[in-house]
Structure formats: structure tokens, C-alpha cells
Amino acid sequence: MPPTLQAHSVTIGTSQPLELARFYSRLLGLPVTTQEGPAPGEPEEAGWAQIRPPEDATALTLNFEYERCYVRPVWPSAPGEQTASQHLDIKVDDLDAAVEWAVGCGAVLAEFQPQDDVRVLLDPDGHPFCLFL
């Protein structure tokens, strides 16, 4: 019998982990539970941060880790350009209101929208994420 395995968290590589944690904290209404500044010799924007749901919730914890060689992805993907290797899908009950909220938090609505019932947005460091009904 295999051991019990459960996905617990997702770590997002970024050039600005503390700022991105604050963005997703506002967007999702989850507290920043951990944040660490740069290690000695790293730039001021380096560090690590985490937002997580209450202990009794089943949502994933999000970690934001400084990537020294981070390259902002291009959406939609294009030959020869940096592509997003993953993205967050966020379920909402009102797509228009959720887009307005996300933009107010600092996201940008992507120019290309592949589906009528999904909206692709970009977070402050260029990671795409999807809002869907």
C-alpha cells in the first residue's frame, strides 16, 4: 500500500518575493505568514515569503522564492520567448467582479483571452493566472 501523499504548497519563483506575497495576500484574502529578507550578499528585493490558509482550510499554501535569473514570461507563449511553466487557476463566483478586484490589487488583464468563461491576468511580476467560474 502506498504512503499517503498530499500536495501542500506551490512555490513560485520570482524577482520580487515579498511584493508578490503581498499581492496574492490581498487578492486571495490570506495572510502573509512568513517573510524573510535577503541573505547576505543578495539584492534588496531577494528573500522568501509565504501566504497560507487557516489550519482547517484545504487550500494550498503559496510560497514566493527569489530567483536570481528570473525572466518574465510571455503570455501567450511565443517561439523563442520565456514561457510560464505553470499558472494558478482561481475559482470565482462572479467573473467580472473578480477581474475588477484583481486589477485593483495590481494585476493586469492579459490582451489575449482564449475562453469566454475564463480570464487570464498577469500578476505584478508577469506570472499569468486564471480566474474561472
From TrEMBL:
What keywords are assigned to this protein? Answer: Dioxygenase, Lyase, Oxidoreductase
Q: Which GO terms describe its molecular function?
A: dioxygenase activity; lyase activity
Q: ATP-binding: is it a keyword of this entry? A: no
The residue ranges of the VOC domain are 6-133
Q: Which SUPFAM superfamilies match?
A: Glyoxalase/Bleomycin resistance protein/Dihydroxybiphenyl dioxygenase (SSF54593)
Give the highest taxon in the source lineage.
Answer: Bacteria
Task: List, alphabetically, the InterPro entries matched.
Answer: Glyas_Bleomycin-R_OHBP_Dase, Glyoxalase_6, VOC_core
* PANTHER family (UniProt xref): CONSERVED PROTEIN, HYPOTHETICAL FUSION PROTEIN
Instruction: Please identify the protein, giving its name as recorded.
Output: Catechol 2,3-dioxygenase-like lactoylglutathione lyase family enzyme
